[in-house]
Design goal:
One of its GO terms (cellular component) is glutamyl-tRNA(Gln) amidotransferase complex. By secondary structure, the chain is α/β, with parallel strands linked by helices. The protein has a single domain, classed as Amidase signature (AS) domain (Amidase signature (AS) enzymes, Alpha-Beta Complex), CATH 3.90.1300.10. Helix content is 39%, strand content 12%.
Length: 497
C-alpha cells in the first residue's frame, strides 16, 4: 500500500470509503509519522493517541454497519490549540493555561466529530495567537519542514508545519491578522480565512473578537474546501455567526476556472520591503491568470497603507479586554497564593509568570489605547481607518470578482531573526491584515519557490464577504495549472525529515 501519509485528504477518504484502508490504519500511519519526525518539527503540543484511535475505530464500525459517512470520515486532522476540546488539554500556547482541561467542545470541534474526522491532537502556536512566527509559544518554537532553522509562520505555525511534514493531511487554524494564510504561504500549503462569521467562534479562545476567524488548512484546494464545508454554518451559540447558507465551496473547488473573471491586482501590495523572488513568482501567477482566460485589472486601495497601524491599535485593545479574564482565581495558573497575599497580588503575580513578552506588550498597548483621553485619538481613529479599508474593498469589488497579491512580503525568515524587532515581525502580515479588518474571505496557495532561497511563496486570493466559493474556483484553477507546469504538487519538493 502507498504511504498513507503522502495522500491527500480526499484520497484517504476514498480509500477508507472503498475499504482499501481502514480509518485505524490511516490514523496509525499518521501517529507513526508524528513519532518519527515531530521531535524535530515540534508541530504538536499534545498528541491524543487514545482519543484518535477511538474515533478511528468508531468510523470503521460505522462503515461495517453500513451507516452513511461524511466525505472526510476517518481522515486525520491537527487542531490548533486555541479551540476548547473536552477532556484534552487546551493551552493557547501559554503557561497561564498549562494543564487546563476544558469541560466542553468548541462548536468547530463538535462539527469535526460529527463529520467523523479523526483529531490527532493540538498544535503549537504563538501564545494567544499573538505573533507571526510561532516563536512566541511558551512551549518553544516550531520549525519549518522546508528548513528547520526557519519559522513556519504564525500564529498557526504548528498546524501548517504538521501539513508540510506529512504528519496530518488536514489542519485547523485561526486568522486574526493572517495567521492561517501567512503560515500557509511560508510552508507551501493552502490556508483559507473564511468570511468573518462563516465559521463559529464559540469555544475558540478569544484574542481580538472582531477579527478572529477559524478556518481550514490543507495541502490542496479541494481538501480545504471539504474541510471548510464540514466546519462552516450558522451557530446560535455565537452572536457573530452569519445565519445564511454556506457558499458552495466544494462545487467551486471541483470546477475551478477563471475564464471570463476579472482579477484585480492591488498596487499598494508591492514595492519596498518585498523580496524580489516573491514578486517574481507573484508576477508569474498574474500572467498565468491571463493565460487561463482572466482579465487582469490594476487597482488602487489607498487606505490599505494604513491597515497595519490600524490593526495594531484595534487588536491590542480587544486583547486587553479579552485577556482580563485570566486572573489566576478561576482556572489555569495561580501563583503566589500562600495565604499571605491579596487577590490583587495573586492576580498580578500570576499574570507576570503566565503571560509571555508579546502578550504583555499587546495588553499594555491596548490598555493605553483604550485609556481615558486617548480612546478617540487611537482606538477611535483606527476604527475610522477600518471603515475606509472596507470602502476600498467595496469599490474594488464593484470592478473585479477577486483580488490577488503576494500573501507575504518575504519567504520564511530564520528563527530568532526578528524576535527583538517587533516592527519587522509585524510587517509579515502586511498583505493579510486588510481582509481581517474588512471581514471578507481570503486564501493563500503555493505559487512556486523563491529563486534566492528555494523556499515557498504564497499567492493570496481575496473575495467579497460570503463569496468564499470564488476563492476555491480561482484557487483550484491556479493550482491545476501549476501542477501541470511543475509536474507534481509543490510539497513533493519539500525535503524529507
Amino acid at each position: 500500500m502507498a504511504d498513507l501519509t503522502k495522500l491527500t485528504a480526499s484520497g484517504l477518504a476514498g480509500k477508507i470509503a472503498s475499504g482499501e484502508a481502514t480509518a485505524v490504519e490511516v490514523t496509525e500511519a499518521h501517529l507513526a509519522r508524528i513519532d518519527a519526525v515531530d521531535e524535530k518539527v515540534h508541530a504538536f503540543l499534545h498528541v491524543d493517541r487514545e482519543g484518535a484511535l477511538a474515533q478511528a475505530r468508531a468510523v470503521d464500525d460505522k462503515r461495517a454497519r453500513g451507516e452513511k459517512l461524511g466525505p472526510l470520515a476517518g481522515v486525520p486532522l491537527a487542531l490548533k490549540d486555541i479551540f476548547t476540546t473536552k477532556g484534552v488539554p487546551t493551552t493557547v500556547g501559554s503557561k497561564i493555561l498549562e494543564g487546563w482541561i476544558p469541560p466542553y467542545d468548541a462548536t468547530l470541534v463538535t462539527r469535526l466529530k460529527a463529520a467523523d474526522v479523526v483529531i490527532l491532537g493540538k498544535t503549537n502556536m504563538d501564545e494567544f495567537a499573538m505573533g507571526s512566527s510561532t516563536e512566541n509559544s511558551a512551549f518553544g518554537p516550531t520549525g519549518n519542514p522546508w528548513d528547520l532553522t526557519r519559522i513556519p509562520g504564525g500564529s498557526g505555525g504548528g498546524s501548517s508545519a504538521s501539513l508540510a511534514s506529512f504528519q496530518a493531511p488536514l489542519a485547523i487554524g485561526t486568522d486574526t491578522g493572517g495567521s492561517i494564510r501567512q503560515p500557509a504561504a511560508v510552508t507551501g500549503t493552502v490556508g483559507v480565512k473564511p468570511t468573518y462569521g462563516g465559521v463559529s467562534r464559540y469555544g475558540m479562545v478569544a484574542f481580538s473578537s472582531s477579527l478572529d476567524q477559524g478556518g481550514p488548512c490543507a495541502r490542496t484546494v479541494l481538501d480545504a474546501a471539504l474541510l471548510h464545508e464540514a466546519i462552516a454554518g450558522h451557530d446560535p451559540l455565537d452572536s457573530t455567526s452569519i445565519d445564511a447558507p454556506v457558499p458552495p465551496v466544494v462545487e467551486a473547488a471541483r470546477n475551478g476556472s477563471v475564464r471570463g473573471m476579472r482579477v484585480g491586482v492591488v498596487k499598494e501590495f508591492a514595492g519596498e520591503g518585498y523580496q524580489a523572488g516573491v514578486m517574481q513568482r507573484f508576477n508569474e501567477s498574474v500572467e498565468l491568470l491571463r493565460e487561463l482566460g482572466a482579465e487582469v485589472v490594476e487597482l488602487s486601495c489607498p487606505s490599505f497603507d494604513k491597515a497595519l497601524a490600524a490593526y495594531y491599535l484595534i487588536a491590542p485593545s480587544e486583547c486587553s479586554s479579552n485577556l482580563a479574564r485570566f486572573d489566576g482565581l478561576r482556572y489555569g495558573l495561580r501563583t503566589g497564593d500562600d495565604g499571605s497575599r491579596s487577590a490583587e497580588d495573586v492576580t498580578a503575580l500570576t499574570r507576570a509568570a503566565g503571560f509571555g513578552p508579546e502578550v504583555k506588550r499587546r495588553i499594555m498597548l491596548g490598555t493605553y489605547a483604550l485609556s481615558s483621553g486617548y480612546y478617540d485619538a487611537y482606538y477611535g481613529s483606527a476604527q475610522k481607518v477600518r471603515t475606509l479599508i472596507s470602502r476600498d474593498f467595496q469599490r474594488a469589488f464593484e470592478q473585479v470578482d477577486v483580488l490577488v497579491s503576494p500573501t507575504t512580503p518575504t519567504t520564511a525568515f530564520p528563527i530568532g531573526e526578528r524576535v527583538d524587532d517587533p516592527m519587522a515581525m509585524y510587517l509579515a502580515d502586511l498583505c493579510t491584515i486588510p481582509s481581517n479588518l474588512a471581514g471578507n474571505a481570503a486564501m493563500s496557495l503555493p505559487c512556486g519557490l523563491a529563486p534566492e532561497d528555494g523556499l515557498p511563496v504564497g499567492l493570496q486570493i481575496v473575495a467579497p464577504a460570503m463569496a468564499d466559493d470564488r476563492l476555491y474556483k480561482v484557487g483550484a484553477a491556479v493550482e491545476a495549472a501549476f501542477i501541470d507546469k511543475w509536474g507534481h504538487p509543490l510539497l513533493e519538493e519539500a525535503p524529507s525529515l
